[in-house]
Amino acid sequence: MTEVKLALWQRAPVEPSREGFLEALDKAMARTRADVLITPELCWPGYGDVMLSRAEAVDQRGPFIACVRALAVRHCKAIVLGYAEADSGRIFNSAICIGADGAVLANYRKQTTANDYERECFTKGGPAPVFEIKGIPIALLICLDAEFPELVRRASLEGALLLIVPTALSPKWRVIPDAVIPTRACENGIFVAYCNYAGDDEAAPFCGRSLVVGPDGRTMANALTVECLLDVTIKSDDVIKARDQLDYLGHLGHLLRS
């Protein structure tokens, strides 16, 4: 059995400066003993008018990513950071996973755009490879991506046992954490960690309700509507137990061959 401790940083929208954000990230990492700290979607630099001008290159020599890598090493924790990524004149809605040793394990670019604002701002990305932390295979999706069963199924078929989903969800869409995310976990027999904001910014209100769902579709931990660190430990044996009882992926293979 392998296990990973997760901390979902359900936080208010971003500080007005890069330095302020990095300081807040540093403090959040110091408050938890988790192996992985997970942030909401576009945690830096947030939504609104300044977002495009504050997009950051993923280049490991860039100053912002270098600072985040240094925090990972200092606290000996992995980070999944939602951020606006600049690359060759294009902007992507991205999530980067930096390991506890400061190495970039994955950089995922959101494949869907939820509204006119996102369509105007962002270039769509594509699938990211499955990677591992402490022996647990992990995949990343962002917000709307996880609402498509095809994208979650692809990740699970590629071996992911944990899906990490930074999100920025308004109260209008509470059905997603209440019903859709548990369904995605259950129908694939995987863990899903879904991390949202709490509070309002200039772009929208956010509903909180970050949660971690087990491979049996049951919620393991669920935040309310205030800022918090939601700590959860996931164990690989729980996937085996859930799939022994109801193996959707096994049935799928039979159906596709028939």
UniProtKB/TrEMBL annotation:
Entry keyword annotation includes Glycoprotein: no
Xref: InterPro entries: Aliph_Amidase/BUP, C-N_Hydrolase, C-N_Hydrolase_sf
UniProtKB keywords: Hydrolase
All copies of domain CN hydrolase, residue ranges: 4-236
Superkingdom: Bacteria
MF term (GO), any: hydrolase activity
Protein name: Nitrilase-related carbon-nitrogen hydrolase
Organism: Fuscovulum ytuae
Lineage: Bacteria, Pseudomonadati, Pseudomonadota, Alphaproteobacteria, Rhodobacterales
